[in-house]
Every structure is written in C-alpha cells, then in structure tokens.
Design brief:
By secondary structure, the protein is an alpha+beta fold. The chain has three domains: 152 residues, Beta-Lactamase; 84 residues, Helix Hairpins; 144 residues, Histidine kinase-like ATPase, C-terminal domain (Heat Shock Protein 90). It contains ten helices and twelve strands.
Length: 457
Amino acid sequence: MRKLSWKLGMLFFAFVLAVELVLFVSLYATLVHARIEEEFAQLLARGNSHRNVLEKNYDHTTVEHVVMMESEAETDVVITDARRHIVSASSGIVPFARQLIPLTYGRSIPREGMMVETDWKRASHIATVSPIQIGGETRGYVYMFQDTRSIRTMVYKLKHHFVVVGVLSVAITMMTIAFFSRAITMPLLRMKRATEALSRGDFSVRVEVKGDDELARLGKAIQTLANDLAYLKQERSEFLASISHELRTPLTYVKGYADIARRPHLSEKERANYVAIIYEEAEKIEKMVKDLFELAKLERHSFQIETQPTNLCSFFAKLCEKLRPAFQEKSLSLVCQCPSSVTAAIDQERFEQVMINVLDNARKYAFPGTTVEIAVHPQKREIVVAVSDQGVGIPPEDVPRIFERFYRVDKSRSRTSGGTGLGLAIAKEIVEAHGGTIAARSEQGKGTTILMTLPEG
C-alpha cells in the first residue's frame, strides 16, 4: 500500500511539477519582457520630454539645464546638433555615445523617437533618440542612455523571487500531494486489512467509510461482504447444530432399539415391534436427508423451474381430492375457493410440493372439526393464494422465523408431528423461484394464514 501511495504521489508530483514549471517559465518570461519594455518606454518618454523642452527654448542655457537635470538621475543624456555633433552631454557617457551615434546616421528618426540600443544583456547601456524639430526643421537630437546593470539587477532579483516562490511552491505541492495521497490510500489500507481479516475467517471487521465516491462504495461493498460472511458463518453453525440435533434423536432411537432387538430372550412379537420402530426412525432420517438435498439444490439454484400456464382451479381441485383422506382422518374439512378463469404460470410438480408442505402444517395444527381453506384472489398483476386453518396459531415473535431451516414453534411437538422443520423453507425457495413471495399471518388460538403471491399467467 505504501508503494501505491508512493506511486500516486510521484505521479501527481510529476504532473503538477510539469504544469508549475511551464506556468512559472511562461510567467517569468512574460514579466521580464514586460518590465524591460517598461524600462525602454520610460527612457524613451524621458528623452521625448527633454526634446519638448528644447523645442520650446532651444538655446545654450536650456541645453545645459537639461544636462544638469540628468546629472542627478540614473540616466544620461547627450544632445547633438542636426549633424549629430555633440553639443552637450552627461559626464562619462561620451565615449559610449561616440560609438553609438554614428550607427544612427542615415536612419529616419520618427517624431516619437526610437530605440537605438536594446541589447541589455551584452551592451553597457540601452539608448533612445528623439529628434528636436523647430518650424518643421530638425535642429538636433536628444540621446538618452541607461546603464544596463540596473536592468540586469532587476532581472536577477525577479529571477531570485521566482526561484524562491518556485521552491516554496514545490515544497507546498509535495506536502499537499503527500497529504492527499495518504488520504486516498488510507481507506484502501483499511480495506486491505479488512480483506486480510476476512481471509483469516474474522468476519467481525468494520470498514468505516464516508461519502459516496468509488472508495466509499468499495468500502461499503467490503462491509456488506463481511456482514454476509458473518451471517453465513452463523447460519452454518446453527445449521450444523440443528442437523446434529435432528439426526441425534432418531439415531439414538435406532441404536437403542437395535440393541434391545438383539437380545436373545425377546419374543418374535416384541422383536418385530422394535424393528418397526427402527424402520420408522430410519424413514424419518431418509426424509430429512432428502429434504436437505432438495433445499441445497434450491438454494444453489441448480434446479430448473419449468412453468406453464395452469388453471389454478383445476390444479387445486385435483390436489384437494388427493389430500382430502388425510384431512378426514383428523376430522378436518379441506375446501377450495377459486374463480374458474384464474391462470398462473407455474411448475406444477414444484408448486404441488409447496402446497403439500403448507397444507401438511395446516393439517397438523388445525383443531379437529374445523376447516382448512385454499382461497385464490386475483389482483391487478398478481394472484394471491391463501391457505387458512383454524388452529393453535403462532406466537407473534415466531412468525418471522417459520420459513427458516429447522425452525419449529413448538420444539416439544417435533417428534409427534413428524416434521423435519424444512418444509416451509423449501416452500419459500420454490415460491421465490417462481418470482413470487410467501408470508404468514397468525393469531394464537384462532389460526394461521399462509399468503403466497404468484405472477399473473
């Protein structure tokens, strides 16, 4: 993770450094150019100002006055006549002026003046020239000179400031990138630790996430995975405990009665009775294993639902005819209320299995002499199938759990009722595979209604 943080940091740093370098170089070049142009413009404006004074009073006194004004300034002035012979000049500038002035011979000097030396990097001075025109006739020229050392000093200071600011910018950029790289990679580091804990079987990890960006969604996905794995671990533990308990009881009976049946002094009638009990318990074990295998296939979705349009009235009529004798043995009536035109797309074999499981529970817990009813209610886009009994009912706290594997409301009646605790779990998986839902509504002492919805066929 540190390697990723380092890579991200270096990538951002290289990108930002390149952008900063381009911006700083461009800004520096632009600023230097602007400042030098400003120096040129100021020097030319100063020369034009002196030219304007001389054009008003072009005499020896005015010329000397202009030269004296420049003696206290950082610039120098040279005043020539029309033939460019020096009339007066600042002290010290004459040698350079004598080299420069001949370069302007034959050149047309505009009224606003012009630069005659701009090489501030190599020349000792920059220079301008402004013509003195009186009555439309050129009477002389004003040459202005400025030492280039001041310009180079200004450029050096500017460069120094840019270097300092650049170094500070790079330092701030590095700290900012380091902070944000850490801020980005820290959630990833926490997620890495969480996934490592998950790989070790520790599903109690907690991934704290904020926001709704990609990292936050990844953290939420890992947390959801951890919760699901923890739930599955708990489910597996409960399942193993339940199946161990469910198998232990019949196996205890089988082993106990087998030991008794082996005794030599038993009569054939007693031995046959014990063998019958052993056979009955073996059938219970076989049914439980069969139900477990069926439930495993349903949960893995390794089975196929082959639906076909089915008239539910005909389907339930045949089912009631098949199951009615079992209900009559307990003095129960089994009736079906169904509009004749209701059709649904169902897998008849699988849905019959659902109805048998649901009706078997109703038969076990309904009061003798009461009625178990199958009612079909067509809705707008679905069909509701309700199986109602008048029996002991289910406590409110148990209703949400009756579709769990091995869950029984009354554990003490599990052996007498003969159930495996898997029937409603299997029914739930099959109904949901049809695209429907299953739920329970119950009131203790009055009865239970199982409500199933199916897509309209």
